[in-house]
């Protein structure tokens, strides 16, 4: 289901898209014994589409939101949206997609928290290392005062197909040359930009954003204080300041973010380089001790099927 809570200028437009998303998700969701849900709380400066689909083809349906006022973004009355979507325990090919763009004024970014029913004590937040992004390579602006200008489902699916191409494929016209994570990727451009937390206490830069309605203020629709603002960085000094760096090219503001939609999402592979002779035990953060036997330099890859610590 999707809870269509907020009564403001874009609600009617969003409810129609949201109802379609619900119907599509119910129709398309598999029903194994270990099915679960993800509860998502999302807001964006300024616009986003949210959907569930597979890694290869993109989302199967989208709910579209354009936030045209500060209250639409930050407040407990008309701010973050709430989604509850079905997922499958142990899946590897399903993803949740958040497609974003902005008005090229003041700030830009999005914020979210995602609670998996299978691991209720380990939510996933924006800013966690499980996210990847693709900068599509075209300009897109909001249309406040008129119909939403969110990309169509067909446009998003075509963009996902393009993002999935190899970085050296001449047909890959994306700005980022495919998907990149918080550390970027060799041969591709940019990385997921991680900004300040939603707690107003520990910003890595001096507070670009007001605090968004928190889960303490509104448990049903607020966003966790531990969530961090997220965007794309292709080398700009401040990725979240739309004005700052004359700097932020328009062809990198239409972005697609995604994360695995498993009920127990798989943590990205942790690579631990060791230069050691003989045998021993290597402690991997969040995983525990792992024995090794090497001569020279080796790389230990560990994959953990829980949310990031």
Helix content: 10-25%
Principal-axes shape call: globular
Q: Low-confidence parts, pLDDT < 50 over ≥5 residues?
A: 1-34, 267-309
Return the structural class: mainly beta
| Largest sheet entry | 6 strands, antiparallel
Q: Distance between termini? A: 28 Å
Residue fraction in strands: 25-35%
In N-to-C order, the SSE pattern is: EHEEEEHEEEEEHEEEEE
Strands, helices and their partners?
Layout lengths: L1 E2 L7 H18 L6 E11 L1 E8 L3 E2 L3 E4 L3 H5 L6 E8 L5 E8 L7 E8 L7 E2 L6 E4 L17 H11 L27 E7 L30 E6 L21 E6 L9 E15 L3 E15 L7
Can you describe what's shown?
The two termini are 28 Å apart. The chain is 11% helix and 34% strand. The model is unreliable at 1-34 and 267-309 (pLDDT under 50). It has 309 residues and is mainly beta. The protein has helices at 11-28, 70-74, 153-163; strands at 2-3, 35-45, 47-54, 58-59, 63-66, 81-88, 94-101, 109-116, 124-125, 132-135, 191-197, 228-233, 255-260, 270-284, 288-302. Strands 3, 4, 5, 7, 10 and 13 form a six-stranded antiparallel sheet that branches. Strands 1-6-2-8-9 form a five-stranded antiparallel sheet. The protein contains three helices and 15 strands. The radius of gyration is 20 Å and the shape is globular.
């Amino acid at each position: 289901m999707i809870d269509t809570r907020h009564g403001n200028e874009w609600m009617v437009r969003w409810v129609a898209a949201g109802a379609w998303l619900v119907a599509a998700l119910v129709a398309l969701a598999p029903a194994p014994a270990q099915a679960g849900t993800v509860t998502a709380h999302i807001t964006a400066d300024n616009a986003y589409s949210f959907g569930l689909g597979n890694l290869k083809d993109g989302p199967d349906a989208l709910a579209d939101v354009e936030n045209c006022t500060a209250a639409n973004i930050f407040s407990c009355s008309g701010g973050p949206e709430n989604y509850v979507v079905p997922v499958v325990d142990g899946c590897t090919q399903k993803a949740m997609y958040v497609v974003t763009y902005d008005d090229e004024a003041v700030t830009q970014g999005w914020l979210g928290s995602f609670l998996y029913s299978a691991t209720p004590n380990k939510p996933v937040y924006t800013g966690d290392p499980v996210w990847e992004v693709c900068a599509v390579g075209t300009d897109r602006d909001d249309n406040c005062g008129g119909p939403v200008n969110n990309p169509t489902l067909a446009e998003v699916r075509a963009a996902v197909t393009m993002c999935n191409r190899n970085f050296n494929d001449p047909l890959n016209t994306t700005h980022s040359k495919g998907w990149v994570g918080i550390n970027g990727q060799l041969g591709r451009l940019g990385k997921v930009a991680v900004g300040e937390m939603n707690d107003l206490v520990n910003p890595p830069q001096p507070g670009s954003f007001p605090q968004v309605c928190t889960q303490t203020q509104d448990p049903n629709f607020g966003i966790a204080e531990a969530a961090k603002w997220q965007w794309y960085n292709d080398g700009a000094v401040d990725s979240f300041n739309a004005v700052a760096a004359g700097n932020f090219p328009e062809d990198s503001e239409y972005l697609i973010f995604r994360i695995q939609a498993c009920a127990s999402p798989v943590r990205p592979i942790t690579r631990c380089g060791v230069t050691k002779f003989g045998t021993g035990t290597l402690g991997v953060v969040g995983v525990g001790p792992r024995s090794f036997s090497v001569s020279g330099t080796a790389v230990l890859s560990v994959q953990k099927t829980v949310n990031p610590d």
